[in-house]
Amino acid sequence: MNRVVVTSVAAITPLGNDVDTSWQNLLEGKSGIGTITRIDTADLATTIAGEVKDFDPTEFIGKKEARRMETFTQYAVASCRMLLDRAGWTVPESERDRVGTVIGVGLGGLQSIETTHSKMLERGPGKISPFFIPILIANMAAGQVSIAAGAMGPNICTTTACASGTHGVGAAYTDIAMGRADAMICGGAESTITRLGIAGFNAMKALSVRNDEPELASRPFDADRTGFIMGEGCGLLLLESLEHAKARGAEILAEVVGFGASGDAYHMTAPPEDGSGMAYAMGGALREARVDPSKIDHINAHGTSTYLNDLCETRAIKKVFGDHAYNINICANKSQVGHLLGAAGGVEAVFAVKTIAEGVIPGTINQTNPDPECDLDVCADGPREKQVEYALSNSFGFGGTNACVLFKRFTG
Q: Transmembrane segments in this chain: where (predicted)?
C-alpha cells in the first residue's frame, strides 16, 4: 500500500473565492450567509443562503467555455487551476495516465433544468440547447477538471448526497493507496441555490426560515437550531503518493491515513437515533489507519444545524470515542458557510487539512444555547491554537450514506 499525502488545497466558498480568504474569514468567525440575491424568493419560505460572491469564471475559463458550464462546474475548474498553481505543478505529458479526478456532486445542474424546462414550455423542444444534457450532468465537474488539468487517469463523480465530497476524497485516496494512480484531484462541488432547490428542501421542512437574522440562522448543536442553510462552492485537494510527492519536491500539508464508509439501512432522510451508521464510518476510518480512538484530537463535524443530525452525530461520536469524546475539539464549518451539499465534504476536508497545517482549530459560531444532549466541545468560544495530530472529517447524507476521512500530521 502506498502512503498518501495532501500537497495542495483550494476552495471557493461563501466566505471567499480562494482558500486563503475563506480560511481567514472562517477563523475570524465571520458568516457567509445572507439574503439570497440571484433568484426571486418572494414566495419561498426560506430567503437566505450562503452564496458565493463576486465570482467571475472568466478569470479562469474562456468566455465561450464558461457559457457551456453550469456554475458548479465553473467552481470546480476554477478551483482546479488554483489548486495546481498553489502546488507549483503541471501534469507532465509522461504522467497524464497516472493522474485522475474524483469530484463529488450531489444534485448537479438544477439551474439548467429549471431554465431549460421553462424555455421548452414557452417556445417548444426545438429551442433546447444541444449542450443542455452535457452541461447539467453531475460528472461534468470531474470531466472538465480532467480536461483542464490534462489528467487521463480515473475520472469519476461520486454522487452520494451530502457525503459526495468526502466519498470523492476517499475514492481518490484508495486509488493512490492501491497503486492505480500517482496523483488525484479530488473533493466536491455544488451550486443549487435555485427556486427549485430551495422549494424542494422547504417542502421537507429541512431549511431554517430564520430569514430576519441570516448570520445567526445556522446553529449546529444549539438548542434553538431550526434547520440547515443551503450554501454553494467547491473544495479540492491534490493527493499524491508519498513517493511521487517527494520526487517532485512537493510541500506536504498532511497525510491521509484512513477512510470509512457505511450505510444506515434505515430511512430515506433520517439517521437512526443511536447514530450507529455514522459510528460505523468513523470507526472504519480509525481501523484502517490502525489508530486508537484516544489519539484523535479534532473532528470537523458534519454539523448541519438540523435537530436529528446534530443529535445523532453527537451520539455516534460518544459511541466511537467513549469518555475521550469530551476531550476532542470539534468544529462545525456549516455555522459559517451553510451546507454546501455535495461540496460540503470537499470544503470541510480542505479546512481539516488547514487545521493541521496551520495549528489552529476553527470555532463554531451561533452555539449560544447549547443543546443539553449535544454536550461535546464544539469550540463555541472561538478558534483554538493547537498542534493537531489527527483530524477526522465527517459527512453524512440522505439515503443513509456515511463517509469519514482521517488526516494526520505528516512526520516523514
A: none
Do residues 296 and 227 share a domain?
no
Nearest to 394 by CA among 219, 237, 215, 169: 169
Which grid coordinates belong to 378?
464544539
Cα torsion at 328, 329, 333, 336 (round to 10°)? 140
Kindly report the CATH number assigned to the domain that includes residue 353: 3.40.47.10
φ, ψ for residue 374, nearest 5 deg? -110, 70
* Predicted confidence band of residue 412 (pLDDT cuts 50, 70, 90): confident
User: Do residue 114 and residue 174 come from a single domain?
Assistant: yes
| Domain span at 288 | 259-408
Three cell numbers, residue 251: 510541500
Nearest to 352 by CA among 164, 213, 187: 187
Could you tell me if residue 411 is left (phi over 0), alpha (psi between -120 and 50 degrees) or otherwise beta? alpha
Q: Which of 196, 217, 247 is the last residue of a domain?
A: 247
Give the catalytic positions in this structure: 162, 302, 339
